[in-house]
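To fix ideas, we close by showing one paired sequence and structure record:
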Amino acid sequence: MGACPTLMIILASSLFLVLPNLEVIDAVGCTGRYFNGRYGQNRQNLFSTLAEKVVAKGGFYNASLGESPNRVQALALCARGYERQACMSCVEKATKDIIQHCQQRSSFTWQQDDKDDVSCLVSSSNHSTFGNLELIPAIGSPSPLSLKYESSKNITLFEQEWNAMANRTIKAAAEAEKSVLKYYSAVKAEFTEYENVYMLMQCTPDIASHDCKTCLEECVALFKKWYWGRQGGEVNLPSCFFRWDLYPFHGAFGNLTRVPAPPRPPVQEKERCIAGRKIGDGGIIAIVVVFTFINLVVFVGFIKVHARRRKSHNISSGSAAYSDSDGQSMLRFDLGMLLTATNEFACENKLGQGGFGTVYKGTLFNGKEVAVKRLTKGSGQGDIEFKNEVSLLTRLQHRNLVKLLGFCNEGDEVILVYEFVPNSSLDSFIFDDEKRSLLTWELRYRIIEGIARGLVYLHEDSQLKIIHRDLKLSNILLDAEMNPKVADFGTARLFDTDVTRAETKRIAGTRGYMAPEYLNHGQISAKSDVYGFGVMLLEIISGERNKRFEGEGLAAFAWKRWVEGKPEIIIDPFLMEHPRNEIIKLIQIGLLCVQENATKRPTMSSVITWLGNETIIVPLPNAPAFTGSLSQFESATIAMNEDVFTELSCR
C-alpha cells in the first residue's frame, strides 16, 4: 500500500509511519538534495536490472552507474530463505516505490510482504554506502493494537523478558557470518503474558559485525522510544531491519526451536533470611559493614600479590614483557594460555594454512580476539625467519600493516600472535565469484591505495627500510572495515637507510610475483616489491589469478591488450559499469610497476601521487618481464610459500 509522498521525505530528522496493519510494508525514506533529470535517469537505468542481478549474485548486489556528480550507487538485498521469483518481485516493487516517492539523492526501503513470505532492501545514493554504517533516515511502523496484560504488575515483567529477547537476537544476528547473507537472526520465545513472541533482525552483509550490532541496537531503542506498548511493529534503517510480533510473520519461524520464558524474579521482602534466621534492616546494616571491611582487607592483599606477579607475567593477556638484543620490547605469550585461547588449536578455529604453518583464531582471557600463527616443525621458516618477523614487526606501526602482538617459543612450539583481522585475505574475495561482487570499484581503489601506503611506509617512512619480498593477495589481510593490511614478514629483508640495492643467494618468495632481476640474479631492492605490487594491482582489476594466464602471465597478457588499444579486455565484468578511464589509468600504473627494467619502475610514493591526483599525467609503460613462457623460470630455486592464508574446510 502506498503512502503520501510528502510524508516520505526526510531531511534532517527521522520519519515514522503508522500503518493500519503490517502485512505489506512499503515506506520509503529519503534524504539529501533533490536531483536533476540526469541523476534520475541513471537511477532508473540502474534499477532496471537490479532485480535480476540480486538473484544472480546470491541475494546481495551492489553497483553504480554514471559519472560524478550524477553517479548513482545502489544496493539490493533479499532476506535469507527467499524464493527467486518472490525476491525479484520484492526488489522490483521496492525500486518502483522509490522512483515514485523519492526525488532526493539518497533513498531506501525495506519491503516486506507476509503473503509472499519475502522481505528485501533497496537503497540508492550519490555516494558509496558499501561497507559504511548508515543510520539516517529511519522508518518505523507499529501495530495498531496495544499490548494487554493480565495484571498491572506484569507490565514490568513483560518488558524484562522482551529486553532479554531483543539482546539475544541482536547478539545472534551480529555474530552470524556463515554466508554472504550473514547478520540474520529469527527468534521465537515463550513469554509469561503471551504464549509466543517472534522477533526478526537483519543487517546488510557489507558492514562490520560491531556496526551491525550498533544498527540493531538503534532500531530497538527507536522502537521503544516511539512505539512501546504496541502489540508488535518494526523500525528500518538503511543498514538494518528489525521487527517483532505475536504471530509468525515470516517463513523463517517455521522450524525454530521455542525458547522457554525466563523464570519469574524472586519476591522481594522487607526482611531477609540468613542461615535460616530472619533479620531486620539494622542487622543487614551491621552485616554489610563487616563484609565490607573483610573485602577491603582481601582487596588490599590481592593488589600487593598482583603487583608482584605483573613484574614477571601479565595475567590478563597471558604474556610477559621481553626485550630483544636491540632493546625492542615485545610480549612473550604463555603456551598454556594460547592453548586455551584456541581450544588447543581446534580445527574449527583454523583461519588458514600454508607451507610455514597454520593460523588459528583465538580469544584471550580479557576477551581480545587474536590470530595465532603456529609454525610447522621443519617448515623452512626456522629460527632465522621467526626472529626476523618478530624483530621487524615489533618496530613497525602503520594502519596498513598487520600488527604483531607477541610470540611464544616454549619447547618445540614456535608461535606468533597477531591482531585478529576478521575478513581474511584479499585473495579469498578477489578469486571468489560470489564474494568478488561485493568489491565495488570504490572499495578496490581504496584497497589498492591502502596497500601502496603500507609499502611507502616500509620503503621510505619508517625508521627502518624493509623489502617485503613476498607480496601477493594472500598476504594482504582485510579488517572489519575492509582496510588492507600487509602481512607475513617471514622473508622480509632489512636494509640500512642509505642502501638501495643488495644481492642474496637465497631466493624467497612466490613464483609469478618476483621481479626478474631478483629471480635470475638475486638482486633485491624496493623495486622488487613494486613489481609484486603491480601484479597484485592487475589481479585486483581483472579478478583473475596471475597463474591463470599460463604461458605468459597476467602482466604480459595485459601488456598485449594495452598495445592493441584494448586494455578494457582485462577488466573484471563486475566493474564494467564503473568509470572506465579511471580503471584504465590503474592498469597503466600496474604495467609501469611490472616493467622488466627495474630502474624504469616507479617508487611507491610516485604511485601514491598518481592515485591521489587526477591532473598528473602518468607516463607510458614499457614491456613487462616474462613476455615469453613462464617455463623459462620454473626451474629456478625458490623458497616457495604459495598459499600462506588459504581458506580451509575442517573435517
User: Anything to note?
Assistant: The chain has five domains: 5-142, 154-253, 273-310, 318-420, 425-651. The first helix runs from residue 5 to 8. The mean pLDDT is 76.
